[in-house]
């Protein structure tokens, strides 16, 4: 369904077998290293930088750098149109995806159509870490999305050969796990007002990482004080039905809560998808269960 | 707070530095390899078996086996009494734990005391994968518990030197992530009846892995047909208050739902914590949202 823009005319060169104590064999294809054209914030760029910075013995650093170039060559770049579902639950899980740009929602459905959005992803996020043999979720583009796509077998092979990549995949899974556990508390124990205020502050944090997140209320030195969020505007990525499916609420409750927040002077609304923060401290206290 | 039964009188020998293409240096301590006395289903045994079976070049296999022996020596064995909280949220995350025997609940609390149990763990499960610098959960023993405990720095060091371990940690994080996403659907979209029936079938699955799980309703060849669960009894690991905090319900709703199931002939109750399955197919249909 997704439009695949393959970066190779010919089939990709075979991957070297996993590192077994030998220096990895370079196996460069015909396509230049700049196949990402420097535009995509994709996995390999970050790892490449890390490999260059890490104090690895020089032979090993060169080997890992070459394998990362290799990874560039066998990475497909996929463009997905807004609203398109590019992974369906119970399909065979053949790929890992990394979001290069745009926003993606992952969701699961119950047989009668009830739906729960399990994650909202943005640039740099992985898709598919939790899949077993088959995908256990649907993935849909919330707007135009660019993805980097790599076969699971190839990724496993690379992860064995590139310890930096193996560690990055593990860190990513652990980070997602922590976030998922935050959301268990939200869905299991927070009120509708607490859920909606958490969501609004999460959107702001995703838009500007210097804004404190209610999920991690410990303030780092680089974070703005919460009162400084007054006057900031956030653009919501999705309609009320999706917000309801993300927060485990009905659409009516979501709309009612937005209206209540507006009437209480906590936020102002500009159309359906723009929200300005007026009383950010009160929203943060609500979101963290302090009110 | 937990009673530590250190397996070493002297400080553990230093870990070798991460594998950097050299064969790992063996660095055996004074304590015998059987420090687990074969009793604990702990991490190293499994990996050891895997290392022996894997077709690694012999020098590498020997290296990894020696490092695994090393890991045995620096693993502490901890006994925790029933009801004891052995990890507190916001403590510095210094250790990874693996449950050797017994059951553990992980939970988070909101400032006013509302509580959400985020995971129920048993033998072989990891604790601490999702922690950042500090633990983001409390861990409490549901009965007498044995744990294997290893410093996070030591574990990271071993994971770099032992690819099998690195992969196992990643698989574990991905498996927990998948389970956590299942629970998002439960908390966000399932009714009380659906949640309680899911919980009962989960308990049965944890007790006997040949019983199908509502979280993974695809039947594997080794699973019993659901009708064959009739007459099986499950012992619940925790009181109604904990079940409520796990399922995002009130205690009253949990008790009412148990009573309703009993009156409808779906289950019978033997005291507070024993449940016999009478109509397992109906419970499975409820749990998977087919009713």
What does this structure look like?
The structure is a homodimer of 291-residue chains. Chain A contains eight helices and twelve strands. Chain A has 291 residues and is of the alpha+beta class. Chain A folds into two domains: 177 residues, Jelly Rolls; 98 residues, Winged helix-like DNA-binding domain superfamily/Winged helix DNA-binding domain (Arc Repressor Mutant, subunit A, Orthogonal Bundle), CATH 1.10.10. Chain A is globular and about 60 Å long.
CATH class label of the largest domain in chain A: Mainly Beta
Tally of discrete structural domains of chain A: 2
Strand order of the largest sheet of chain A: 1-2-9-4-7
Structural class of chain A: alpha+beta
The first-to-last residue Cα distance of chain A is 46 Å
Mean residue pLDDT of chain A: 81
Oligomeric nature of the chains: homodimer
Q: Overall 3D geometry of chain A?
A: globular
Considering the chains and any ligands shown, give keywords for the structure.
alpha+beta, homodimer, 291 residues, five-stranded antiparallel beta sheet, 2 domains, Jelly Rolls
SSE topology:
Two copies of one chain form a homodimer.
Chain A: E1 3-5, H1 43-53, H2 58-74, E2 76-80, E3 85-87, E4 95-101, E5 104-109, E6 115-121, E7 126-127, E8 138-141, E9 145-151, H3 152-161, H4 163-189, H5 192-207, E10 233-235, H6 240-247, H7 251-263, E11 267-270, E12 274-277, H8 280-287
Antiparallel strand pairs in A: 1-2, 2-9, 3-8, 4-7, 4-9, 5-6, 5-8, 10-12, 11-12
């Amino acid at each position: 369904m997704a439009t695949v823009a393959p970066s190779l005319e010919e089939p990709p060169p075979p991957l070297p077998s996993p590192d077994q104590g030998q220096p990895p064999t370079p196996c460069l294809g015909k396509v230049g290293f700049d196949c990402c054209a420097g535009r995509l914030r994709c996995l390999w760029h970050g790892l490449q930088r890390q490999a260059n910075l890490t104090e690895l013995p020089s032979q090993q650093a060169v080997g890992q750098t070459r394998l990362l170039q290799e990874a560039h060559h066998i990475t497909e770049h996929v463009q997905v149109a807004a609203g398109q579902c590019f992974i369906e639950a119970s399909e065979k899980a053949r790929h890992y995806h990394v979001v290069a740009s745009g926003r993606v929602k992952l969701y699961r459905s119950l047989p009668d159509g009830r739906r729960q959005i399990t994650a909202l992803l943005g640039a740099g996020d992985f898709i598919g870490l939790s899949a077993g043999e088959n995908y256990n979720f649907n993935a849909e583009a919330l707007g135009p999305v660019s993805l980097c796509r790599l076969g699971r077998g190839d990724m496993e092979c690379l992860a064995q050969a590139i310890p930096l990549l193996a560690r990055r995949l593990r860190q990513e899974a652990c980070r997602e796990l922590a976030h998922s556990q935050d959301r268990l508390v939200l869905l299991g124990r927070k009120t509708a007002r607490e859920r909606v205020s958490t969501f609004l502050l999460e959107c702001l944090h995703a838009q500007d990482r210097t804004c404190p997140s209610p999920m991690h209320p410990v303030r780092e030195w680089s974070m703005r004080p919460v009162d400084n969020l007054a006057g900031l505007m956030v653009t919501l990525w999705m309609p009320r039905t999706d917000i309801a499916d993300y927060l485990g609420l009905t659409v009516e409750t979501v709309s009612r809560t937005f209206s209540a927040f507006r009437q209480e002077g906590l936020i102002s609304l500009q159309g359906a998808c723009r929200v300005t923060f007026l009383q950010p401290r009160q929203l943060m206290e609500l979101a963290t269960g302090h009110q």
